Amino acid sequence: MRRFISHKTINLISKTTTSTVSSSSPNSPSLSPNSPLASLLRFFSTFHPSSMASDYSTTPITIDNINPKVLKCEYAVRGEIVSIAQTLQQNLKDNPGSHPFDEILYCNIGNPQSLAQQPITFFREVLALCDHPSILDKIETQGLFSADAIERAFQILEQIPGRATGAYSHSQGIKGLRDTIASGMKARDGFPADPNDLFLTDGASPAVHMMMQLLIRSENDGILCPIPQYPLYSASIALHGGTLVPYYLDEQTGWGLEISELEHQLKTAKSKGIDVRALVVINPGNPTGQVLGEANQREIVEFCKKEGLVLLADEVYQENVYVPDKKFHSFKKISRSMGYGETDISLVSFQSVSKGFYGECGKRGGYMEVTGFSPEVREQIYKLASVNLCSNISGQILASLIMSPPKVGDESYESFSAEKEAILSSLARRAKTLEDALNSLEGVTCNRAEGAMYLFPCINLPDKAIKAAEEAKTAPDAFYAKHLLNATGIVVVPGSGFRQVPGTWHFRCTILPQEEKIPAIVSRLTEFHKKFMDEFRG
C-alpha cells in the first residue's frame, strides 16, 4: 500500500512540477532544489518501485553460500508443475475462458478435503467442543452435538492441563491421549502398546525428520528406501546429510518387495563404504499403492533382524485398502507374532490423521511408536521432541480419535460408520475407474490400486517426445505432465520426482477428485493422450 501511495504521489508531483515549468514564462524561476516541493519529491522517490528493484548483490546470503544440503533437497509433490498450475489458476480467475479448461484439477497430492471430501462429523464435533469448552455447559449444546461427542470432549478436557487446547503439552503429547492411542493399537494388533513409546507429532513428517536426525551422522550413513519412493524420505535424508540407498520395487509383480533386491543393494552400499542404518518400508505403498502380504512382511522383519537395521514403517495409509484379498497388518503385529520382543528388533512406525478416510491434512496430527531402543537413546529422542516443545493440540486430539472412534451403542456410531464406508467405497470405485482408463491408453500400463490414494502408471513415450524433452532440458515424464496440465488443467506429479527404474517413465495421480468429476478427468486425459501420442509418434 505504501508503495502504491508513494508511486501515485510521485506521479502527481511530477505532473505538478512539469506543469509549473511548462506554464512559466522564460523568465520564471525553475523549481528550487531547496523548495518544499523538491524536498517532498526526493523523499517519496526513495519508495519508488525502481529503487526497490530485486538487486540483492550486497546481501550476505546468496544461493552460493547457503547450506548445500538445502540445495540438494527436492520435493516434487509441490514442485514446478504445481507452480505452473497455480499460475494457470490465477489466469482463469483474472481472465475466465483464457484456457481450454475452466478449472484446475489437483491430482498431485493426497489432500482430500481440498477436493471436497467432507470431514468426519464426530471428529469435528469433539474438536469444536474441546476448543470452546464453555459451550459444554449450555443447554443448546445438547441439541447441536451428539451425546457421545459431548462425553468424549469432557473426557479429553480432563486430560489436558488447564483444560486449554491453546497451551503447551508434554513434548511427547498429552499422556491421556497417548493412553487412548495405545489402547487403540492394542485393539488393532492384539499386542500391548506402551503410551511412553508414543511421540505425538504435527503429522508423520516431523517424526520422519526426527528419526533421520537421530540415525544420520554423515554422508557415510545410508538409509534403504523403496524406489519409487515418497519424496519426504529423499528430501529428509538429503537435509540431514545422509545417503539414500535405493531398492527397486518390482513393477512386473505389482510393485513387489523382493528380499534378494534388499540384499543386493545392501551389499553394494557396503562395498562403497556406506554404513546402512535403517530400512524404510511404505505400506500401503506411496506412490505405488500396493499392500504387502503377511509372508513378505515376515521376510522383511527377518532381514532387518539379521542385518541389524532399524525398521522404519510408514503406515499412514493403513485404513486405505480397497481389494478383498489384501489386509493391512502393522509391522509391530508381525514382529510380535514372530516372537520378537522389545529388545529383539528396533522398530519405528508412523501414523497420520492426514490420510485414511479422515483426510485431516491441515490439522497436522500424527505420531510415531518407537520400540527397541535403549533408555539412553530414548532420552535423546525425547530431547529432539522437546526442541519443538510439543505438537499442536488439535492434531493430538484427532490422533486419539482416529484410534478410538465411536463404538457400537454410541449415538454417533451409525452416522460415523456410514460416513467412513461412503468415503472408502467411493475411493475404491474411483481407483478402479481411473485404473481401467489408464490401462486403455496407448503405451500405458497401470498396476491395480490395492491401497493408499494413488495410481502410478508407466508411460511408454515415443522417441520424438523424449528427444523434445531433452531439448527442453526436462525429464520426459515432466514434459508429458506439463503438456497434460496446459491442455487439460489436470495436475499430476512426474514419476522422476519419486525416482524410478532408469529408462522408465511414470506419473502419480491421486484418486481424490470428487467421484462425479472422474468421468470428466478420464475424458480429458484420454483425448489429450491420443493427441500427444499422434503429435510425437514419429
TrEMBL record:
- Alphabetically ordered keywords of this record: Aminotransferase, Pyridoxal phosphate, Transferase
Cite a single GO MF annotation.
L-alanine:2-oxoglutarate aminotransferase activity
Pathway-wise, it operates in: Amino-acid degradation; L-alanine degradation via transaminase pathway; pyruvate from L-alanine: step 1/1; Photosynthesis; C4 acid pathway
User: Which principal EC class is assigned to this enzyme?
Assistant: transferase
Q: Where is the Aminotransferase class I/classII large domain?
A: 162-524
Q: Which family does it belong to?
A: Belongs to the class-I pyridoxal-phosphate-dependent aminotransferase family. Alanine aminotransferase subfamily.
What PANTHER family does the entry give?
Answer: ALANINE AMINOTRANSFERASE (PTHR11751), ALANINE TRANSAMINASE (PTHR11751:SF473)
Instruction: Supply the name of the protein.
Output: alanine transaminase
